[in-house]
Specification:
Low-confidence stretches: 375-379
Largest sheet: 5 strands, parallel
Structural class: alpha/beta
Strand order of the largest sheet: 7-6-5-11-12
Strand content: 5-15%
Oligomer: single chain
Mean pLDDT: 94
């Protein structure tokens, strides 16, 4: 229905101006303001240089005849409010019941080829709750974008080179030798977590002291490969249990082995934005239009690369692979890194606007009203595994995705486990389970609802549900466009609330066969939509609770 009104407005606006303008139609919270409303008249004020109420009158006068709008009002400075024939809203039921799992699918993405990189934590320890939020939000974005016909590839960038990995290897070396009984001190910047101690013991059990017979070079290379693979497999398992999957695990070492870094440096030098100063090689990022506040070193005076250099090569390679858009999810501490990275995209011959960076704000864990601190170095942290075991994957994912990623999040363990309407996930899942219970009862009584009477779904509670159902495909498209899974969570709260209100005011199964059939069709559509929405944020839809 909303799409019908948008098209009605588009055709009318086309008659009074040649300018193309996006038309938005909202569902007013107050039904006295109509079933749907648009501010298009105010949007056109600068274009047509007229009073918005006059523009609204002109738009209405040029509207095509139709059988679904009952009345149109102009309110306030120029809002156009639509009151639709209630029976016409029921058309969405046919769509939901026909499409089922595909309901919500839309073509707004137009098959745009997107590479979405997320989590990408160094394989030096367990993933903590910050990584969990990154994974939950990003995986939900992927699901929503795929539902909107984007061609999305999911990638994890494995930082298996650099100082942190070197510290990891030295830590494993010490733990391995300690497990063999040698008196070896841990490196000053070493990793002291239980997983590193376990890794040292595993090496001692599997290889005894045989590894020490290798040359120093081969020994350290073996430790690097073994340790990184061990840590990475742990991360993959935890992410998979958290329903976060990837298509590619792209290793930083590949950039060195393939020569992509040297090739990228050569291309940057040809761009004219590279210069030498103080025996170092620099990229003139301040001249590349992205607002970076100072130029950046690529090669230090000692001849080693900065961490920025392989990042440039990696992002150039992403574009070289043919993606139209790159999306990165970074932690809050990477905010200042974005301008230089975008500058490097311009220097590499691509457009920085095609690199989109979403900054994930911090998560604060609360237990009994107290904040839980974490420290990766000491091994005292709340991991994804802890989160799953404490509250379950469903609650963890929902709570991490239900707030805008650019805002701080308080994660309340007690609320996440609470089985009441105060728990937003329980509220939604219970609506789904309650509908399943009603439908089982109907099935036991031999009731069918393949045929229903549209005129019997015009009470205010049914109409509220129908309007919410009709909004779902557009909601998915908007959530995909803005990369905002929390919109889906907000929608589910609204839809669940409309169902609970409907259920409290209408007897679904009654002696009135026709009314029962119509209500059963309606709640089946709600069940389908809730399930589809929950899947978009990686959460299950239980049939019994």
């Amino acid at each position: 229905m909303k799409n019908k009104i948008v098209r009605l407005l588009e055709n009318s606006v086309a008659k009074i101006t040649e300018k193309t303008i996006d038309i938005y139609v909202e569902t007013p919270k107050n039904t006295e303001n109509g079933d749907f409303s648009s501010n298009i008249a105010m949007q056109l004020t600068k274009v047509l240089k007229k009073n918005p109420r006059m523009i609204a009158e002109e738009i209405i006068a040029n509207m095509e005849d139709n059988d679904f709008v009952k009345k149109i009002d102009i309110a306030g400075p120029g809002f156009i409010n639509f009151f639709v024939n209630k029976s016409s809203l029921v058309e969405v039921l046919d769509k939901v019941l026909l499409e089922k799992d595909d309901f919500g699918q839309n073509n707004s993405g137009n098959s745009e080829k997107v590479l979405l990189e997320y989590v990408s934590a160094n394989p030096t320890g367990d993933l903590h709750v910050g990584h969990a939020r990154n994974g939950a939000v990003a995986d939900s974005i992927v699901r929503i974008m795929k539902k909107s016909s984007y061609d999305v590839t999911r990638e994890y960038y494995v930082n298996d080179a650099g100082n942190q990995i070197n510290n990891l290897i030295l830590s494993v070396d010490a733990r391995y030798k300690q497990a063999l009984g040698q008196d070896v001190a841990m490196p000053e910047d070493g990793y002291n977590g239980k997983d590193i101690m376990l890794l040292g013991k595993l090496l001692a059990e599997e290889f005894d002291a045989n590894l020490l017979e290798k040359s120093e070079k081969d020994y350290m290379k073996f430790l690097r490969e073994y340790s990184v693979n061990y840590q990475l497999n742990k991360l993959k398992k935890d992410l998979s249990d958290f329903r976060v999957e990837f298509d590619n695990f792209y290793r930083e070492t590949w950039l060195y082995e393939s020569g992509k870094i040297t090739d990228t440096l050569a291309a940057l030098k040809e761009s004219g934005y590279v210069f030498e100063e103080s025996e170092a090689v620099w990229l003139r990022t301040t001249s590349l239009g992205t607002g970076d506040d100072k130029d950046r070193v690529l090669i230090k005076a000692d001849g080693s690369y900065t961490y920025f250099t392989p990042d440039i090569a990696y992002h150039k390679d992403k574009f070289d692979r043919g993606y139209d858009k790159l999306i990165n999810l970074f932690g809050a501490d990477h905010h200042g890194y974005v301008p230089r990275l975008k500058a490097s995209v311009n220097a590499s011959g691509y457009k920085s606007e095609n690199l989109e960076v979403l900054i994930m704000q911090l998560v604060r864990l609360l237990e009994d009203g107290q904040e839980i601190k974490m420290s990766k170095r000491t091994g005292k942290l709340i991991t994804i595994r802890d989160l799953i075991e404490e509250v379950g994957t469903d609650a963890a994912r929902y709570f991490l995705a239900m707030r805008s990623a650019d805002t701080h999040l308080d994660f309340d363990f007690a609320l996440a486990k609470e089985q009441s309407s105060d728990n937003p996930l329980y509220y939604v899942q219970y609506a789904h389970a309650r509908i399943c219970s009603i439908l089982r009862q109907a099935e036991d009584q031999g009731l069918e609802f393949t045929v229903y009477d549209k005129e019997l779904l015009t009470d205010p509670y049914s109409v509220e549900i129908l309007k919410n159902l009709a909004y779902f495909p557009e909601l998915v498209a908007q959530a995909a466009k803005h990369r905002e899974p929390h919109r889906v969570c907000n929608y589910m709260q609204t839809l669940a609330a409309s169902f609970h209100k409907f259920y409290g005011n209408n007897k679904v199964i009654s002696d009135n066969k026709e009314q029962t059939q119509s209500y059963l069709a309606l709640i089946t559509a709600v069940k389908i939509t809730i399930k589809n929405a929950l899947e978009l944020v990686g959460v299950s839809a239980p049939e019994r609770m």
